[in-house]
Design a protein that fits this description.
Layout lengths: L1 E4 L5 H4 L11 E4 L9 E4 L2 E4 L11 H18 L5 H12 L3 E2 L3 E3 L2 E7 L7 E6 L8 E4 L10 E8 L5 E8 L4 E8 L10 E5 L4 E3 L3 E6 L16 E6 L8 E4 L9 E6 L5 E7 L6 E6 L8 E4 L6 E7 L2 E6 L7 E6 L9 E4 L5 E7 L2 E8 L2 E8 L4 E4 L7 E4 L8 E8 L2 E9 L5 E5 L10 E9 L5 E9 L10 E4 L14 H8 L3 E5 L9 H5 L7 H16 L8 E6 L1 H12 L6 E5 L18 H4 L6 H10 L13 E7 L8 H13 L6 E6 L10 H18 L6 H9 L1
Subcellular location: Periplasm
GO biological process, one term: proteolysis
EC number: 3.4.21.26
């Protein structure tokens, strides 16, 4: 099938010139994607799945399809006249030194640093008390593989700092290997542990550490179901084959996600066990008593509850049990059930995310998605409100009990992330690291608005752009959203978004229902049979931007990844005329089968499944992007992005959606899929690949809004 793509490419006319538009014709011939007669029956209703064969990530036929689609996509992208210029500007702006907050382990102070364009951050260290300029490279993931596609994951130091356990990811996969290093000699100790997934690493003294994993699935390790998580203990000096299962081996009680952690004093092992991404059971074991059994704190999954801290047997617990915005309670470890809990920091109208350091608790609250931090002692006395550098997101506020100072980060949409040193006793903050970047925040502004969704619910949105930008409805705009899994989108600086805004672009982020910005009630209002609320919130955000002349449908792009990819897919199929460009990334797009892949069944709290009930099946089918692509509809210019090693949201979602759109698209807007090789769901993606991806995404977006050169260049020409 052959489509002729005719973007309305006239930049000078866009900025007010009266010349006739130039028309550049790009012919796109999509690969022929075969259809098969696969039919599933749900509650008596037959549902066709003609592209089911694309779910087989191991087949040569799927590999050929991926190759053919990429050839078409990159042939198109290569013809965008300013693609290389965008890549150059992204590279230039990215090329500044980025340093993380220092932390102490044993005799050393460690920190992460990236010189600028290194594919992966490097871990450095220096002897505590010595000049930081003496820092040496301790662990450099860039040496793992030349192209940077092996990344460093979880790191955990033993209690005395003499050993480091760290995980690595190959090609972006969630399956990890774990290695152990002697920190003094930097030599590897013992065997490499394999086939570990969704795991923290937590040491018991120096003897060994706890980790979590699934049995290796039969069939494809990228797409086969994994839903029985187990906690293991690895004793140093023994092979992995002798590692003992500590928790989760009971077949009749599946836990899809189990996290094991040891308290800072090494006295207790804490287990959080979940069947879904929301809600967990909680158990504790006294490690000071040989042979001690686990004690149940919570035996249901009705709340998200975790141990924040302990002082001896006194536990400080964070929970949203009967407190949707979370509170802190205390209880004795010997009798820790909820009927013995005592409120310590009660629930407020704002969502709480606490941390500890230096014998204090730092209560970080979200107030309309921006940070407010209160400092308490362990008796519950309010010490002070921490004075933050501005309005934005503050994170960190964590260190060991004996420390006198800690480091925290601060950022917002126009402020590159800076590190502050905080004196715990006095409350004084001191700027510790400010990045030297070729970006002037004074030239940009960021403001929050509130708009009404379809049902009248007020939704906050932060809009960021150049100062003095003319609101004439013609500004290229990216509307970015997520809206799920209790995840909050708070203000943070992005190099890529800075480049977008340099071009006169607007970047808008609404805090949709389904997220965690206003606690559990806000999250639940965007789940299961209320999922349409999320899409309505996003659509209303787009309408607000258009009604208030920030942009118009001709200059609006919608973007989101993972659950946000579902958001984009649902929005573009429900309201295709609302936006010019759609950018679904690593999206959950087949809502009838998502739970049959990898750990997808764990997302049922948010989505429900097509097997739950006839009503749930019909609701999911009613918005599932894959099942709502219709013949005779002109969908927006679409660039679907995914990774061939994504084993969280398997690429089959994107493959099938692309095939469906390409077969049914009407009109001139291109539908392309960009499949990154040796890449997964996003974490650990090399900087070089990230820059190329953004150059392609922004290039595709601007090109399909009618630009044949970058807007910033045009503005300079007009000014001259």
């Amino acid at each position: 099938m052959k489509f002729t793509i005719v973007p309305a490419i006239l930049v000078l006319a866009f900025v007010g010139c009266k010349e006739e538009p130039k028309k550049e014709v790009i012919s796109v011939t999509y690969p022929q994607t075969k259809k098969v007669d696969t039919v599933d029956t749900y509650f008596g209703e037959e549902v066709k799945d003609p592209y089911r064969w694309l779910e087989d990530d191991r087949s040569a036929e799927t590999a050929e399809w991926v190759k053919a689609e990429n050839e078409v996509t990159f042939d198109y992208l290569n013809k965008i006249p300013f693609r290389e210029e965008l890549k150059g500007r992204l590279s230039d702006l990215w090329n500044y030194e980025k340093v993380g907050p220092p932390f102490k382990e044993g005799d050393y102070t460690y920190f992460y640093k990236n010189d600028g364009l290194q594919n992966q951050y490097v871990l450095y260290r220096y002897k505590t008390g010595e000049d930081p300029s003496t820092a040496e490279v301790f662990l450099d993931p860039n040496t793992f593989k030349e192209d940077g596609t092996i990344s460093l994951g979880e790191t955990s130091f033993s209690k005395d700092g003499s050993k480091l356990a760290y995980s690595i990811s190959e090609g972006g996969s969630d399956w990890r290997k774990v290695l152990v290093m002697n920190t003094e000699t930097k030599e590897l100790v013992g065997d490499t542990l394999k086939d570990i997934k969704f795991s923290s690493l937590s040491w018991k003294g120096e003897d060994g550490f706890y980790y979590s994993s699934y049995d290796k699935p039969k069939g494809s390790e990228l797409s086969a179901k994994t839903d029985q998580h187990k906690v293991y203990y690895h004793k140093m000096g023994t092979p992995q084959s002798e590692d003992k299962v500590i928790f989760g081996a009971t077949p009749e009680e599946k836990h899809r996600y189990i996290n094991a952690s040891v308290t800072e004093d090494n006295n207790y092992l804490i287990i959080r066990a979940s069947t879904s991404t929301s809600g967990n059971k909680l158990f504790i074991k006294d490690l000071t008593k040989p042979g001690a059994a686990f004690v149940t704190i919570l035996d249901d999954t009705d709340s998200d509850t975790s141990i924040l801290e302990n002082v001896g047997s006194k536990l400080y617990i964070v929970t949203n049990r009967n407190a949707p915005n979370r509170k802190i309670v205390t209880v004795d470890a010997n009798n820790p059930t909820p009927d013995n809990w005592v409120d310590f920091i009660p629930e407020t109208e704002n969502v709480l995310s606490p941390s500890t350091g230096g014998g204090n608790i730092f209560a970080n609250y979200m107030v309309d998605a921006v940070s407010k931090v209160l400092q308490y002692d362990y008796d519950g006395k309010l010490i002070r409100e921490v004075k933050l550098p501005g309005v934005g997101s503050a994170g960190g506020f964590g260190t060991k009990k004996e420390e006198k100072e800690l480091y925290y980060s601060f950022t917002n949409y126009v402020t590159p992330g800076s590190i502050y040193k905080y004196d715990i006793a006095s409350g004084n903050s001191e700027l510790f690291i400010k990045p030297e970047i070729d970006f002037n925040p004074e030239n940009f502004e960021s403001h929050q608005v509130f708009y009404n969704s379809k049902d009248g619910t007020k939704i906050p949105m932060i809009i960021t752009h150049k100062k003095g930008l003319k609101m004439d409805g013609k500004n290229p705009t990216i509307l970015y959203g997520y809206g799920g899994f209790n995840i909050s989108l708070t203000p943070s600086f992005s190099i890529a978004n800075a480049v977008w805004m340099e071009q006169g672009g607007i970047y808008a982020v609404p805090n949709l229902r389904g997220g965690g910005e206003y606690g559990k009630k806000w999250h639940d209002a965007g789940t299961k049979m209320k999922k349409q609320n999320v899409f309505d919130d996003f659509i209303a955000a787009a309408e607000y931007l258009i009604e208030n002349n920030y942009t118009s449908s001709d200059y609006l792009a919608v973007r989101g990844g993972s659950n946000g990819g579902l958001l984009v897919g649902a929005t573009m199929t429900q309201r295709p005329e609302l936006m010019k460009v759609a950018l679904p990334a690593v999206g959950v797009l087949d809502m009838l089968r998502y739970h049959t892949f990898t750990a997808g069944a764990g997302w049922a709290y948010d989505y429900g499944t097509a097997e739950d009930s006839k009503e749930m099946f019909e609701y999911l089918k009613g918005y599932s992007p894959l099942h709502n692509v219709k013949e005779g509809v002109e969908y927006p210019a679409t660039l679907i992005t995914t990774g061939d090693h994504d084993d969280r949201v398997v690429p089959a979602h994107s493959f099938k959606f692309a095939a469906e759109l390409q077969s049914k698209q009407t009109g001139n807007n291109p539908v392309l899929i960009r499949i990154e090789t040796d890449a997964g769901h996003g974490a650990g993606t090399p900087v070089s690949k990230t820059i190329e991806q953004y150059a392609d995404i922004f290039g595709f977006t601007l090109f399909n809004m009618g630009y044949e050169e970058l807007p910033e260049n045009i503005n300079k020409e007009i000014k001259q």
